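Input record (one chain):
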Amino acid sequence: MRLRIQKNLAAMTAAFIMTAPALAQHGAHVHGEGRLSLAVETKEIEIEVTLPGADVVGFEHKAETAADKKAVAAALAKLKDGGALFKFPAEAGCKLEKAAAKLDGMAGEAHKAHAHKEQGHKEHGKKGHAHKDDHKDQAGHGEFKAHYHFDCANTGAATHVDVGLFKAFPSLKEIDAATITAKGQGAQALTAAAARLKF
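The corresponding structure, as predicted from the sequence alone:
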């Protein structure tokens, strides 16, 4: 069951990127903007989140100082607290069963292949070209990624979730969200003033 819902999440995210012009234009990394994917199946809800490092810890260079490392550790701990970050209707009876968070691209490791529009990074040359493995040891695109698994007594009552990421990370301006439920697929832009994701 979990493998199937995770495959649905991956397929949904890919379809969402293809059909959301703003997200496709901005690519996978724009300061102030995050991404969220949510899938509901039977009594399970899966959420995946990607946030720019600058909006989570205030920097995107390799964490070398004690203060930087402390900030990263604190951010990862905050991201793992899915029960505080996502509030479903009480009648849905949703409980966080698993949460994981990691940091990509801020410790010198190579990025996964992706394509994006350049946003002020003139050193990369032509705009809008695909990058494969040429991000090694560069510090301009660090991202925090998190995954959450909720078990719910009544997913039919889970008509929305209040997203606490803006309170946790005030530098965030917008989150492009995609959902897939028995009702179909949906997309919504979340902000601090409108942080309720309806599905």
